[in-house]
Write a structure and sequence with these properties.
The complex is a heterodimer.
Chain A lengths: L2 H22 L8 H6 L13 H8 L1 H34 L3 H10 L7 H12 L4 H8 L12 H25 L3 H9 L4 H12 L1 H17 L2 H6 L7 H11 L3 H36 L1
Chain B lengths: L2 H9 L20 H31 L2 E3 L9 E2 L2 H8 L1 H34 L5 H13 L2 H14 L6 H10 L2 H13 L3 H9 L4 H30 L2 H7 L6 H11 L2 H33 L5
Antiparallel strand pairs in B: 1-2
Helix pairs in contact in B: 2-13, 3-13, 4-7, 4-8, 4-10, 5-8, 6-11, 7-11, 8-10, 9-10, 10-13, 12-13
Classes of the chains: A mainly alpha, B mainly alpha.
């Protein structure tokens, strides 16, 4: 029963990824021959492997700038999304008013909107004639910077897209903490920040890790948000990967960049798997 | 309320009225500190409102704007002409139709492939189970563009480039993780004792599955199907790479539109493209907010 999806993944993801690894190391035969036929600036060997493509890509200052941009935007997005999801999750957990219900509805809106449209909407909102500039103008701040087509806009877009998942994870995690525990802490004199620190935080490590890792992996591999809202250079790796492939006709270099991003994503993914395995081991001991 | 629903309530979600801790506080005059906190809370909510909804409203207004000069907050002249522009364009109509053909096919195919696996993942503890669940997740970690470039080679050799099946496969790949993980969690949440009880009173295995297991897991499966439908519906890059020139779907068209058409036409198209997402997510909203999505992301 498990076979069909595993087979689909193996044939249409595992196999191409394997071929891509071989291609980045200089092997252009087999499944790579069609792509390699028309490609430019390839580093090909017929025996053994070569790291020439990696050296070329990592030696390219533009790619290095893209890589740093990617790392920065990813880190900023992770931090903001985790903080925002915690803040909103806590607010929803601890208060039940009309305002908290509005906040809960607001925070999941991006789930309803396709990413292409969200990116376009965010671009126009922060553009040179967008709402933010208009507002700043009316408040007398005429030199307010234009955020459209900057890395800041990319980070804003990534945060916007990832907030609902964060809030859903965190509120699900926070809601599974029994009221009795919170009340016990408050009754024995703990302040609210203390309660959060000593009760809610330790019990919600896993959801926090899930939010951080999935957000990170999403941003690393994203294309639409940086493509529509970001600058032409430096931009995130997803965009420059596509450029190397379609505009420069250098698929090997594009694949090398994909490998670099993949390594970063796997690094993040390892944290997620480690946290989950640790938690389920602990659960099986206690139960 | 069924046992599962009760469990769902205990596990929690966004929408439960009884959960929040109402502190029995003595009413007194608000201290300056409390007033400041309240003020900060208000600013936070307004900022969140602008951040979340602002861009969408700003874009929606554009779809009806004739003349809109900076720095005005709204257009000085309103018009519907952009809607006519979009509806008169034949290629846009075709792309809408195509989108609605691909997404259901992909969703059904994905369900047929993944749901049996989800059941197996939750009910049988076979060797390599967790490794397989995690490796499905690893498919999400490889950047999509890198994957599509390399997949193109495989597709060429299988003659899938520019075919309906090729596009279905490209879109299907993006749905496998949802379609496996979320139903796995949904099946796992059903106590085995319920199935055993049904079997004890004489129900056969198929009857147990269709009368007990499936109805209880249905909300989770429903969420997974909606998310898959939307993932397929919104997929643009892979479809573009594999589908041209025969199959241009709505989101693929959106890229060209954003770059080549007046802003207002892109805004109209955005609204049209968002309608299915809004409608479908509204249907699944209760379950998504109730934690069905969140449960799927914890590997057990």
């Amino acid at each position: 029963m498990v076979l069909p999806p595993v087979a689909v993944v193996a044939v249409f993801i595992g196999f191409p990824v394997g071929a891509a690894i071989a291609y980045t190391l200089g092997r252009a035969g087999g499944p790579n021959s069609t792509v390699a036929l028309l490609a430019q600036r390839q580093h090909i060997v017929h025996h053994g492997v070569t790291t020439a493509a990696y050296r070329e890509v990592l030696g390219n200052p533009h790619v290095r700038a893209d890589l740093w941009a990617t790392v920065w935007v990813t880190l900023v997005t992770i931090v903001v999304v985790v903080l925002l999801s915690w803040a909103i999750g806590l607010y929803l957990r601890l208060s039940d008013t009309r305002i908290s219900r509005i906040v809960s509805a607001l925070s999941v809106i991006p789930l309803f909107i396709p990413v292409v449209i969200a990116s376009y909407a965010i671009l126009t909102f922060y553009a040179s004639q967008g709402f933010i500039k208009t507002l700043a103008y009316h408040l007398g701040w005429h030199s307010f910077p234009t955020l459209g087509y900057t890395l800041t806009a990319v980070a804003i877009g990534e945060i916007w897209v990832n907030v609902p998942f964060g809030v859903l994870m965190m509120s699900s995690g926070l809601n599974s903490v029994p009221n009795a525990l919170i009340e016990a802490a408050r009754d024995s004199g703990a302040s609210l920040p203390r309660t959060v620190r000593s009760v809610l935080l330790p019990m919600n490590v896993i959801p926090t890790v899930i939010v951080a890792t999935f957000t990170g992996i999403y941003v690393l591999g994203s294309f639409t948000v940086p493509y529509l809202t970001g600058p032409s250079a430096p931009n995130l790796m997803g965009v420059s990967m596509a450029n190397f492939f379609s505009a420069f006709n250098q698929p090997q270099q594009a694949e090398v960049m994909a490998m670099i991003v993949f390594v970063l994503a796997v690094g993040i993914g390892t944290i997620y798997v480690w946290a989950n395995v640790r938690a389920s081991k602990r659960a099986s001991i206690t139960s | 309320m069924s046992a599962i629903e009760q469990q769902g309530v205990a596990l929690g979600g966004l929408e439960q009225a009884e959960l929040p801790v109402a502190r029995p506080t003595r009413r007194r005059m608000p201290t300056p500190r409390a007033a400041v906190l309240r003020g900060l809370g208000f600013v936070f909510v307004v900022a969140l409102l602008v951040f979340m909804v602002g861009p969408l409203v700003w874009l929606a207004v554009r779809a009806f704007s004739g003349i809109w000069q900076y720095p005005r907050f709204w257009p000085s002249h309103w018009t519907l002409q952009w809607w006519r522009t979009v509806f008169d364009d034949k290629s846009l109509g075709r792309s809408m139709k195509l989108s609605f053909e691909f997404a259901p096919v992909v969703t059904v195919a994905s369900a047929a492939i993944c749901l049996p696996a989800a059941y197996a993942f939750s009910r049988f503890n076979f060797p390599g189970r967790r490794v397989l669940l995690v490796s499905l997740f690893a498919t999400n970690a490889f950047p999509k563009i890198g994957l599509y470039i390399s997949m193109a080679g495989v597709f060429y050799s299988l003659n899938l480039m520019g075919t309906f099946l090729g596009v279905v496969i490209v879109q299907l790949i993006g749905t496998i993780v949802f379609m496996t993980w979320i139903p796995t969690a949904a099946f796992s949440a059903i106590p085995r004792s319920l199935e055993e009880a049904a079997r004890d009173v004489g129900a056969g295995p198929l009857r147990v599955f269709f009368r007990v297991t499936f109805p209880l897991a249905a909300p989770g499966i429903f969420v997974a199907m909606i998310l898959s439908f939307l993932a397929a519906f919104d997929e643009a890059q892979g479809t573009f790479l594999v589908g041209i020139p025969n199959y241009i779907t709505m989101p693929t068209e959106m890229y060209t539109l954003v770059l080549n058409y007046p802003e207002q036409a892109a805004a109209v198209f955005s609204i049209l493209l968002a309608i299915p997402s809004v409608v479908l997510m509204s249907l699944a909203r209760k379950h998504v907010m109730g934690g069905k999505l969140a449960e799927g992301f914890q590997i057990r």
